[in-house]
Specification:
Layout (H helix, E strand, L loop, with lengths): L3 E8 L2 E8 L2 E5 L1 E4 L11 H6 L5 E4 H6 L3 H6 L3 H4 L6 E4 L2 H6 L4 E4 L2 E5 L6 E4 L1 H11 L3 E3 L11 H21 L7 E6 L5 H14 L3 E4 L8 H11 L9 E3 L5 H8 L5 E4 L1 H7 L2 E4 L2 E4 L19 H4 L3 H9 L4 H27 L2 H11 L8
Parallel strand pairs: 4-14, 5-6, 6-10, 10-11, 11-12, 12-13, 13-14
Antiparallel strand pairs: 1-2, 2-3, 7-8, 8-9, 15-16
Length: about 375
């Protein structure tokens, strides 16, 4: 039996559920910290676990280049290699089809990349992407797709979506089913309802253990993203997990959960932590700002991470001003902990049937923010 999903509670379109996998159960809705190259930047595996994170994300393209999927397999797989026995989801490399457009040539059978590291040439097809993810021992494998750039004309979006559906079928044919493992398809179609519906129908006909919504958070803006979710999510099977790729801010997560999305990933909390930006229950702060130089208070009184329980805002400010690596480490830990706390709160609120009230409480707390949450 492949991995399975059950929704234990609903509140409107929102669901609280459990994803059962070969490497442990995942409570949903869930935020997955991004460990692109086999590590969540600035964090140890123990500190990631301490935040409550139960699943992390790795990247096929980057691990393919360095250290190499075959090497990782010889060394026991990605779980052993990075000391993460829990579930791992691996991106297929499809996002790099878009983001590294100047370093690749694409055809109907796959993509040829020029390595951003040393210029060497690498070929990625649906079958090879699935093989790499198998070698990595990914718990959740993603079908290879083309992440459609924004903006795209209807003709461009249709051609891109149709190519992704062909690659989804070939990914399914290459995938090796194993107990507790699964393959997710990715819905494309840009901002066009009929294309999103057509993509969802094609993927459902192929049959996947989960369904991702791709091609969002690529410049269309939050309002448009929510609009796309409104007309896309109802086309996805209710008995399978739904994954919104590359999203996002706390406000993005709240809005998407309320629309029925179960899984998320984004580099935002870790990248922000490395640049002195803190997500807190009171909003987003930049710890480099001079106003924190004499602030003896806790970064976030509601948070139990080391940055909040053992250090002051003034100390965190000092670390960044002094370019000490402990600053990014502590703030990244905090940001990931905040995201995990937010997801736990959303789960509890769905179970209690008070998601709207909880969301309002969270937003009301963002009163002294320096940036939008």
């Amino acid at each position: 039996m492949t991995l399975t999903f059950q929704a234990d509670a609903t509140d409107g379109a929102a669901r609280a559920g459990v994803l059962h996998t070969a490497h442990g159960d995942i409570q949903t809705p869930v935020f997955m910290p991004v460990g692109t190259a086999g590590t969540v930047k600035a964090m140890t595996p123990d500190s990631v676990r301490a935040t409550g994170a139960g699943i992390v994300l790795g990247n096929t393209y980057h691990l393919m280049l360095r250290p190499g999927a075959e090497r990782v397999a010889r060394l026991g797989g990605l779980h052993t290699f990075m000391d993460w026995p829990g579930p791992i989801l691996t991106d297929s490399g499809g996002f790099q089809v878009m983001s590294l457009s100047k370093l690749r040539k694409m055809d109907k059978d796959g993509v040829t990349f020029q390595s951003h590291i040393d210029g060497s040439s690498h070929r990625l097809t649906p079958a090879r992407s699935i093989e790499i993810q198998h070698l990595l021992d990914a718990t959740i494998t993603m079908a290879l797709d083309e992440c459609t750039p924004f903006p795209a004309t209807p003709e461009q979006a249709r051609a891109s979506m149709m190519l992704s559906m062909e690659w989804a079928l070939r990914s399914k044919e290459a995938f090796v089913p194993r107990p507790g493992y699964g393959l997710f398809g990715i819905v494309q179609g840009s901002v066009y309802p009929e294309l999103r519906a057509q993509s969802a129908a094609a993927l459902t006909a192929i049959g996947f253990e989960g369904y991702a919504i791709g091609g969002l958070a690529v410049g269309e803006g939050q309002a448009e993203m929510f609009h796309v979710l409104d007309f896309t999510v109802p086309h996805l099977p209710a008995d399978r997990p739904r994954y919104l790729m590359g999203v996002g801010t706390p406000e993005d997560l709240i809005g998407a959960v309320s629309r029925g999305v179960d899984m998320f990933d984004c580099v935002m909390p870790t990248r922000a932590g490395r640049t002195a930006r803190a997500y807190t229950s009171a909003g987003v702060f930049n710890l480099r700002n001079a106003r924190f130089a004499d602030d003896a208070g806790s970064l976030d009184a509601t948070c139990a991470c080391l940055a909040c329980t053992r250090h002051s805002r003034a100390y965190l400010h000092h670390l960044f001003r002094a370019d000490e690596m402990l600053g990014p480490m502590l703030l990244t830990w905090h940001n990931v902990a905040y995201y995990q706390s937010l997801m736990r709160g959303l789960r509890r609120a769905i179970v209690a049937g008070r998601l709207d009230a909880y969301a309002a409480e969270v937003r009301a707390g963002w009163t002294t923010a320096e940036e939008p949450a």
